[in-house]
Amino acid sequence: MPGHGNRATPLHMQQMTLFDELGGEPALRALIARFVDRMFDDLMIGYLFRAADRERVKAKEYEFAARHLGAPVAYTGRALDEAHRAHRITGGQFMRRLQILKETLAELQAPQMVRDHLIAHTLSLQAQITNNALDQCDPQHENRSGTVPE
C-alpha cells in the first residue's frame, strides 16, 4: 500500500555518505593502499611498521576509514589506544602520518569534504595514539615516562 513506508527509498533520494562521495569501495581501497604503502616506505616513520603485516594494516585502515565515512563496514581491529600503547609514538611521528594522509588525499584528488573529515577525525584520535602531543623536543612537555626534564 502506498505511503506505509515499506518500499525501498529510491536511490536518488538516499543521502550520500562521504564514502559514496569518495567513490565507494574501489576509491577508498586505492586511497588506503597508497597511504599505507607510503607510511611503510617513509624514511621518518617506516621503521615503526617493520614488524607489521602490510596487507593486514591495509585491511584494518580500510575498515576504520570506511566506517567513519559512513559505509556499512565493521571495524574488526583492536581499540586504537590498545593497539598503539606499546609503540611509544611521538607527536612528531603522529604528525608525519597525518602529513602523509594529507598528501595522499591530495594526490588521489579526494573530494574536499572527505579530506576535511578524515583529517579532523585523525586529529581527534591523537590522544589515543600518543600522549606526547607536542614532541620530545619541548623541554616543558611531559614525556612518556611521566617526568618533566630539568
Folded structure, characterized:
The chain has 150 residues and is an all-alpha fold. The chain has one domain: Orthogonal Bundle (Globin-like). The protein contains 7 helices and no strands. Helix 2 crosses helix 3, helix 2 packs across helix 5 and helix 5 runs antiparallel to helix 6. It is globular, with a radius of gyration of 19 Å. The N terminus and C terminus are likely disordered.
What's a quick, concise take on this entry?
The protein has 150 residues and is mainly alpha-helical. It has seven helices and no strands. The protein has helices at 18-22, 24-41, 54-68, 80-84, 91-107, 112-124, 126-129.
Whole-angstrom Rg: 19 Å
Order of helices and strands: HHHHHHH
- Secondary structure tally: strands: 0
Can you count the helices? 7
What is the CATH superfamily? Globins
Query: How large a portion of the residues is in β-strands, by DSSP E?
Result: under 5%
User: Class, according to the CATH hierarchy?
Assistant: Mainly Alpha
Shape: globular
> What number of domains?
1
CATH topology heading: Globin-like
Query: Helical content, roughly?
Result: 40-55%
CATH-level-2 architecture:
Orthogonal Bundle
Give unreliable regions as ranges.
1-6, 135-150
Task: For the record, give the distance between the C-alpha atoms at the N and C termini, rounded to a whole number.
Answer: 76 Å
Biggest sheet character: none
Give the overall average pLDDT. Answer: 84
Q: Structural class per helix/strand content?
A: mainly alpha
